[in-house]
């Protein structure tokens, strides 16, 4: 949506205060020095005073401050970065995942196979800001969340958000938000849903519509005992993060449009990474209007699109875990795959440190969190396992250990900045990994919106129920017309089998 607009179209979107464009681009006003979301309720600026930017970081680099009314730093992310396969899209996904804070700009450039100078030139040309400025914008947003939703000392927040010094923290917050951290804290806390001791509670915005119930059911149906749980309202899981394990609770935000997210982290510096991975898991940066427009007029998919408004393509916060579960789920039911994954987690997973009580005597979700007791086993742990001692058929065990070894050694890259085509080819070359499993890992583990699982039994049955050929070759040829949204077509076809059931549960096979 954002990459085909000219400035006149952008101005019309601002004039109509269209929220579909929030996060797709940002509008700045020369006379006030403020940048906003397109949907900002303030008076529409004159056209000659308006500038447009592809990212908040670009607006900040040009000297504009965030609007205190519409809070553009809280807009949903641009769907463009999830769909783009070029180096800029890959770089944006890595920066959003916190890569610069972990390895620096040199490490980011090395991971992408570019020089630092080449990478900076590409990013400035495409998104209006270099890697340092983009990371700075991410830090400022993280710091704002920690300042307004936790009781952490401001000095601790500065370093948790990735700033090199308290002075840098203070200067950045004034430049980006127009207020000092102390002013942001004293001028009113924003504790979505009420603060919980020991937790970071925040809102994850999205573009409407969304079928969040179907999304959480999809994840709940596949929840691995000890690692995940779903009680019909709240989905909980353990997260593997750079600074140590954490947990997250996700539920519908009262009033919306946002998901209520409650994080408990070993290291608060992981908040940016945790939030981005949760957003990818729930596909919160999707553009449902663009998907509905592209698929809704299709003679085959028009009906499912109308019946399943807001259907998303579920991702996963840990691609390595998803890949292992995809192998476990080959040729077995969803329930059987859960059982196998639970056994693997119980045997090889690292125990999760006990979560402290909330301290006020209330349940506060403690019972649900108590069901989370394991970190899913790492690729390194599984790579060292005996393939014949996993409780699996020997060929399946060999495939699983081979996959884990390839991930652990870097032969298969499942990181957010990976070349998805290259990764899918590398997966398909491994023993026991067929094209369907490689495609499933690419769709859910790597968050690719344009993967069609032509051999999936649920997809084939959905096609046949709609009067279309279900044979894989014919289905794949048919699906070309649904690009670049073939992942959504995959989920729509599964969902169309039984409109009263959760997305995907009718598939007789589960890859994780």
Which labels suit this protein?
512 residues, alpha+beta, 5-stranded antiparallel beta sheet, globular
Detailed description of the structure:
The protein is an alpha+beta fold and 512 residues long. Helices cover 46% and strands 9% of the residues. It has 24 helices and 11 strands. The strands form 3 sheets. The protein has a 5-stranded antiparallel beta sheet with strand order 5-9-8-7-6. A 4-stranded mixed beta sheet has the order 3-1-2-4. A two-stranded antiparallel sheet has the order 10-11. β6 and β7 form a beta hairpin. α4 packs parallel to α7 and α8 packs across α9. About 4% of the residues have low confidence.
Strand content: 5-15%
Low-confidence stretches: 355-363, 500-509
Largest sheet: number of strands, sense, barrel closure: 5 strands, antiparallel
Mean pLDDT: 90
Shape: globular
Helix-strand makeup class: alpha+beta
Radius of gyration: 23 Å
> Could you give the count of β-strands?
11
